From TrEMBL:
One of its GO terms (molecular function) is DNA-binding transcription repressor activity, RNA polymerase II-specific. Keywords: Activator, DNA-binding, Isopeptide bond, Nucleus, Phosphoprotein, Repressor, Transcription, Transcription regulation, Ubl conjugation. Residues 453-555 are annotated as: Disordered. It is found in: Nucleus. Residues 521-533 have a biased composition (Low complexity). It comes from Terrapene triunguis. This is T-box transcription factor TBX21. Its main location: nucleus. One of its GO terms (cellular component) is chromatin.
DNA sequence: CTTTTCACAGTCGCGCGGATGGGA
DNA sequence: TCCCATCCGCGCGACTGTGAAAAG
């Protein structure tokens, strides 16, 4: 309940939990300052996962729902779960908990069983859904037991979630965008784990886009054959491996082809116009254990409500289309003339994203980025590291790379030489000199996590090895400019595009035409989380080419 | 009328092969 | 002259959303 949109709904208005009540202790136990204005539920589209979060005495992150009527199988099957976990089962640290061995989540008919998950209830599995508590007020971050999971591209997911994410499904399979990407921590470096994702129905309704809103209509179709589980190709592997780099599911494809037989391991079969919730499963694999019982009792499950989506065969909401075009490098061809993008009011555009950052050296005012971060995700008092604010006085423009091309070699030497001793950047966070344009946008994978640095209680790898940064992998070759150098850099390589002339002065007529032509949302949307442009001098040859994205897919 | 399917154009990364340049 | 490394261009495949046609 403390995560993402739910926390926001909680803060602003009661959740429609279909009868579920907010536990009083939840409201009392979490100071308001720990909530974030992220990812409100789309209008007319109440947040799903109508569960409430039992607060765990002495900790947080109780994972079992109080009501699970329309939940994913594991959740729904836990409907009768009592909020207070057995103290003996509490994990060290008191965050999250595990059921005693052998104890099943009681009750719960399986409304939406996941074929891959068997009966949809993993005995002893830890369902972690409500991660944000006083100790971990971080959106896109969850903790269960010792395992910590961060949704890498949380800001982007939140942005999509705000408009009700849609995912295209095709016969041959369509990749998700945004795709699921996580950072794991707290694993036993030498133990072996499997990591997988499954996608389960959120509710039992058929959805329809009507009058600019998603509305429920009719009942969901019954069980559908087909794969619902995607096992990460690196599985099984050591905890060290999983913690070394982000765990991405970019190759996961969604299909509506029930008979899909080829690429079955890469495809998940869904039904159009149904709402789904991806879940991340982390399973410790003991020696001699096979794959058959998977997920098993050793599985810990993480659910990020922001990743909910409705499967469609064609986009319904123009805002979603525009977000996809703006952020998905593969859709670059649909980004229109750069000038036209910036003759509209910035706030009206969904996201101003240059088609080519090389030619368009988009510039952000240095003050803009941190400012937006602070506004969108106000940092709570607890957002300090080593007792100091994460944003250093002298280098206020810290940029947290939420994702990094896995294949990109890390110039760790240079990084370490410059910043290794910086106590503010212990997780591979590199300083990023924000350029000075109000329009710049980075490809989605560079969307900075609003809380790029883990909470103080985070346990990062002691010292990442070269190429293995643990948590936040820095953007390659980004180096901070010493104070005073920015101007010079601007003069040299930061050309102000002619098109940036009037961002704030919107020509309404022109904008309307543009909206019609480009299906741009007529109402204000989120351009705020667009990260800064990259300096062509410091990045790859094509600053807008999303090297990480393509690099990843090229694997 | 709604939903699905298909062909299309656009973009990009990757791999291959040829051209080029430096050193032995 | 030969060998090796690097650079460059081209073709291919993967991937995207669009829009029209087909299907239900």
């Amino acid at each position: 309940m403390l995560n993402g949109a739910q926390s926001q709904s909680f803060a602003k208005e009661p959740l429609d939990l279909q009868g579920a009540k907010e536990p009083a202790e939840l409201k009392m136990g979490v100071p308001e300052r720990f909530y974030f204005p992220d990812a409100p539920a789309p209008e007319g589209c109440p947040l799903s996962l109508p569960y409430s979060a039992p607060m765990v005495p002495g900790g947080f992150g109780g994972s079992a729902p109080a009501t699970g009527r329309f939940l994913s199988p594991a959740l729904s099957s836990c409907s009768a779960y009592r909020p207070q976990p057995p103290p003996a089962a509490a994990q060290p640290g008191g965050h999250g908990f595990a059921l005693p061995p052998g104890e099943l989540y009681p009750g719960g008919g399986e409304l939406y069983p996941s074929p891959a998950a068997g009966d949809g209830c993993y005995p002893g599995a830890v369902q972690h859904v409500f991660p944000r508590g006083p100790l971990y007020p971080v959106p896109g971050y969850q903790l269960s037991g010792k395992i910590q999971v961060m949704l890498n591209n949380y800001p982007l997911w939140a942005k999509f979630h705000k408009h009700q994410t849609e995912m295209i499904i095709t016969k041959q399979g369509r990749r998700m965008f945004p795709f699921l990407s996580f950072n794991l921590s707290g694993l036993d470096p030498v133990a072996h784990y499997r990591v997988c994702v499954d996608i389960v129905l959120v509710d039992q309704h058929h959805w329809r886009y009507q009058g600019g809103k998603w509305v429920q209509c009719g009942k969901a179709e019954g069980n559908m054959p087909g794969n619902r589980l995607y096992i990460h190709p690196d599985s099984p592997n050591t905890g060290a491996h999983w913690m070394r780099q982000e765990v991405s599911f970019g190759k996961l494809k969604l299909t509506n082809n029930k008979g899909a037989s080829n690429n079955i391991t890469q495809m998940i079969v869904l039904q159009s116009l149904h709402k789904y919730q991806p879940r991340l499963h982390v399973t410790e694999v003991k020696e001699g254990e096979g794959d058959e019982a998977y997920p098993s009792g050793n599985t810990q499950t993480f659910i990020f409500p922001e990743t909910q989506f409705i499967a469609v065969t064609a986009y319904q909401n123009a805002d979603i289309t525009q977000l996809k075009i703006d952020h998905n490098p593969f859709a670059k061809g649909f980004r229109d003339n750069f000038d036209s993008m910036y003759t509209t009011a910035e706030g009206d555009r969904v996201t101003p994203s240059p088609p080519d950052a090389t030619s368009c050296q988009q510039l952000l005012p240095g003050s803009r980025f941190p400012s937006f971060l602070h506004e969108q995700y106000p940092l709570p008092q607890s957002r300090y590291y080593n007792g100091e604010p994460l944003q250093h006085k002298e280098h206020p423009r810290w940029y947290f790379a939420s994702q990094q091309p896995p294949a990109a070699p890390l110039d760790y030497g240079a990084y370490e030489g410059s910043y290794g001793g910086n106590k503010y950047m212990p997780f591979g966070v590199k300083a990023f000199p924000l350029p000075a344009s109000p329009h710049a946008t980075l490809p989605y994978y560079q969307e900075p996590h609003p809380f790029g640095s883990p909470p103080a209680a985070w346990q990062p790898p002691a010292k990442p090895s070269p190429g293995a940064l643990g948590w936040f992998r820095p953007v390659r070759d980004i180096r901070p400019l010493p104070a005073g150098e920015e101007k010079g850099k601007d003069a040299e390589g930061w050309a102000e595009p002619a098109s940036v002339k009037s961002v704030d002065s919107s020509d309404s007529g022109l904008f309307e035409a543009e909206c019609k032509r480009r299906r741009v949302s007529p109402y204000a949307s989120s351009a705020e989380s667009s990260p800064p442009a990259r300096n062509g001098d410091l990045y790859d040859k094509d600053g807008g080419a999303d090297p990480g994205y393509y690099g990843f897919y090229g694997n």
